[in-house]
Amino acid sequence: MQKIRKGDDVIVITGKDKGKRGTVLKIVDENNVIVENINIARKHQKANPQAGEPGGIVDRTMPIDVSNVALYNPQKGGADRVGFKVLGDGRKVRVFKSNGEVVDV
After folding, report:
1. Spatial contact of 81 and 97, defined as CB atoms under 8 Å apart
2. d(CA 105, CA 93)
3. Pick from 50, 70, 88, 101: most CB atoms within 10 A?
4. Are 33 and 27 in contact (CB under 8 A)?
């Protein structure tokens, strides 16, 4: 079970986008995630007339390492660590370390 999943609200804790918040769009692999409007790179793209793609400079969202983001805790108002807990009915859920609140609803 992963600590950060697709659709989670995360905050960047280190790097050029430190302090910015966004939603996880995609899990690239076990160490990298793509977060909306975070780690934007400008790419010079060559035109492809057969596919109907224009050329020019385009902005692309690049992957960011999982260790550089943390789950956002709305009650704390900042980043929080995540742990796991098994509920009485046998479900394994993610919980915030600071207050023990369940992340998954």
Report:
1. yes
2. 9
3. 70
4. yes
Q: What is the pTM of this model?
A: 0.84
Token pair for residue 90? Answer: 């046998």
Number of domains in the chain: 1
Alpha-helix runs per DSSP H in 1-105: none
- CB contact set of 40 (below 8 Å; sequence gap of 6+): 59, 60, 61, 62
Q: How far apart are CA 69 and CA 10, in angstroms?
A: 6
What is the C-alpha to C-alpha distance for residues 72 and 98, in angstroms, rounded to an integer? 12
C-beta separation of 101 from 92 below 8 A = no
Express each pLDDT in 25-34 by its tens digit. Answer: 999 999 999 9
For residue range 83-104, what is the model confidence (pLDDT) as tens digits? 999 999 999 999 999 999 999 7
